Amino acid sequence: MLKESYPFYLANEAVYANEDLVVIDKYSGKEATRVAMASPEVIDAGIAAAVDAQEACAELPAYERQAVLEHCVKRFRERFDELAEALCIEAGKPINDAEGEVTRLIDTFKIAAEESTRIYGEIMPLDISPRAKGYRGMWKRVPIGPCSFISPFNFPLNLAAHKVAPALAVGCPFILKPASLTPIGALIIGETLAETDLPKGAFSILPCRRDGAELFTVDERLKLLSFTGSPGVGWQLKTQAGKKPVVLELGGNAAVIVDEDTYIEDAVDRVIFGAFYQSGQSCIGVQRIFIHEKIYDEFRDALVVKTRALKMGDPKDRETFIGPMISEKEANRLKGWIDDAVNEGATLLCGGGLEGAMLEATLLEGVPASCAVNTEEAFGPLANLASFSDFNDALKEVNKSQFGLQAGVFTRDIYKVQKAWDTLDVGGVVIGDVPSWRVDHMPYGGVKESGLGREGIRFAIEDMTEVRLLVIRESQK
Question: Where do the H-state alpha helices sit in 344-412?
């Protein structure tokens, strides 16, 4: 069960300043708990504390940074059920998906613990010409300094972890703003970090409203901004961030290509997962499905049957596959997009029903190219079907999107695999599976409207460190 109230964390310490932020049980619609909300003055104090902690954090030896991360892994395993239940309540995430996210949280911190002792440099020969004779070079990576992190509602644990864990691995103090709709997971991470001996000011976890969070972006004392969320907000923050580097993971409308040689039963099962896991609220959830015309009817019919069989209901029920969307507002938005597509000529194959925040798993075909369900990020339980006859044309259709996070391709033809990898304008190509597949140490991020930079612990570590060169001239005596 959730606690009656939760503090925010300022400079490593729990602060029960107020109970201003109400957290709603996304399935029942009732108040679940209350959270202390940070004011701009508190955020300023958190930044100042991170600046003060910069030297002490940078001086932490690797084994001490590793010990902090290993403590988190241990405690998250011990609190596994509590963390999963919190996800069920604050995010409306079906329990099987919630447990999967807790597992990924543990994986992410475990990977970071391993990488904390592998932040290498390099010896660099400099004598490339006579003028450089007698000079030696070497470089190492050093922490960039205090970081600002903003995490989204759909993965309240793991997407916060992908910012927090690498920062701990390299010795960067940070402030984190979790999504106001889902702050509990991040605060449990904060509670766990408060059990360690991190230098005072090493972390602050500060729920706040978007209109009170300006300092997370504009403050020049912060040396990196990492944001995961919507494109509209992300690109705006980039323009406001000043000189600091910015990492953006902004979602997409991911596509999957199903070629004629595909094992249909397996591909249908994976597409069902990709389109509807955690109620479709994933930036790499399958939204556009391109199926070869030779297998289109068989694939479509099998997909519809299995989609209709998905159970929708209480996320705490292990039989539930479709839970509530994050809010009635978001459910109504997507329902409106579906209705608009049907009015424009699309065929509703199944789903489309709405009750409160519960939107049925929905499949459409024949969607006009200009419809929002085709061009924008649906971020809900919806997918569109279309047929193709030529593989190259299917690749072109995938690339028409303004987004480019990941794409999936079902084919057994190695030459088509290579063509897809060479051609698809996305951050990652997944062969024999859906674009929704991710392991937490791989490079993950997108191009075009999907963002800048890459997550995955080793790749995030590169963003959170800078190269520092040392040149030594040999003694002349």
Answer: 372-375, 391-399
Closest CA to 273 of 250, 291, 259, 289: 289
- How many angstroms separate the CA atoms of 336 and 362, rounded? 13
Distance CA 1, CA 13 (A): 23
Domains of the chain by start residue, with CATH:
5-250+451-469 (3.40.605.10), 255-439 (3.40.309.10)
Distance CA 447, CA 425 (A): 7
Give me the half-sphere count of Cα atoms (radius 13 Å) on the Cβ side of residue 98.
26
- The active-site residue, picked from 90, 249, 365, 376, is 249
SS3 category, 10: strand
Strands (E), 90-238: 122-125, 135-143, 147-150, 174-177, 203-205, 224-228
Residue 8, strand partner residues:
15
Torsion angle defined by CA atoms of residues 67, 11, 236 and 340, in that order, rounded to the nearest 10 degrees: 80
Lookup result for tokens 């107020």: 18
Find the catalytic residue in 72, 283, 365, 377. Answer: 283
Question: Whose structure tokens read 């040689």?
Answer: 261
Q: Is 344 a catalytic residue?
A: no
Asked if 249 is an active-site residue, the reply is yes
Q: 233 φ, ψ to 5°? A: -75, -45
Residue 367 to residues 337, 341, 350, 383, Cα–Cα distance (Å): 11, 6, 14, 10
Q: Is the pTM of this model over 0.90?
A: yes
pLDDT per residue over 429-474, tens digit each?
999 999 999 999 999 999 999 999 999 999 999 999 999 999 999 9
Q: How many residues does the chain have?
A: 477
User: In whole angstroms, how far apart are CA 26 and each of 270, 315, 331, 384?
Assistant: 27, 9, 12, 26
pLDDT in tens, 147-188: 999 999 999 999 999 999 999 999 999 999 999 999 999 999
Residue with tokens 């084919």: 411
Cα–Cα distance between 149 and 227 in angstroms, integer? 6
In 3D space, the residue among 359, 411, 372 whose CA is nearest the CA of residue 388 turns out to be 411
